[in-house]
Amino acid sequence: MSMFIDYKRLSMLCALAVMLVLTGCSTKLKTDGEPEEPIFVRERMIDPSVQPLTAVSDPWEGLNRRLYNFNSRADRWVLLPAVRGYRFIFPQFMRTGIRNVFNTFGDVVTFANQLLQFKPKQAGQTTVRVAANLTFGLLGTIDAASAMKLAKYQEDFGQTLGHWGVGTGPYVVLPLYGPSNLRDAVGLIPDTLLQNYLWDQLLSDDDGYSAERNAARVILQTLDARDRVGFRYHSTSSPFEYELVRLLAATKRQLDVEK
User: DSSP labels for 128-165?
Assistant: First the structure.
């Protein structure tokens, strides 16, 4: 039987063997028994300037998570359907007018907190803004102040407490309201009382319907507040949505105080 040698294949095998030998000679062998430094370590993967998701104080996490889940269900089955009905009933220009009125009352709360923070210049600018919206803006339904390029600020009592050095305290999730902290949750009380007082002065009358008007105002204000927010629960596709929302909420409030 004749034997044939494939010289082309033989030459390729020889070349491959030479390459393997050269590669082995050029590789530095570790003889001290120490493993190579790992690549995917935390210090290399995470910027040290980035706050970790677990950095926010959350000692009541169990309760907060239950309230977070409650809020997500209430949002899905109650608030969002109500907002869709709100958008169906009121066209865009009417919703804008309603929002402008609530913004004007919010500016009064901002003015009060600017005084408490000893910011007379900003308080004066907010006063001019409110006056412009109440006069040229047809009782606040038109944002004439923004058209006049007047500065807009947003301050609340939680920021006032932070301005004077009060710490945030632990993270809390408020029913329906959402993420907050203990300091800001306490700060909601005077802000809400002030707004309710202003609305009572505006809506109270001797016809006996002031309670109904206030109830309608609270409903409209709640729908408008939810209509402003584009966030949807469980829409991040992340298993760490609770931690992410917690970190973003805490960071935003920190920036609000420091501005």
Answer: HHHHHHHHTTTTTTS-HHHHTT-------HHHHHHHTT
H helix runs in 27-119, sequence order = 42-45, 61-74, 80-89, 92-116
Domain assignment of residue 229, yes or no:
yes
Count how many domains the chain has: 1
Model pLDDT for residues 11-70, shown as the tens digit of each residue:
555 555 555 545 555 445 444 555 555 544 445 444 555 556 568 999 999 999 999 999
Is the residue at 223 inside a domain? yes
Question: Which among 159, 163, 151, 179 is positioned nearest to 245, based on CA atoms?
Answer: 179
Decide: pTM greater than 0.85.
no
The DSSP bridge partners found for residue 178 are 174
Residue 16 domain-assigned?
no
51 found inside a domain:
no
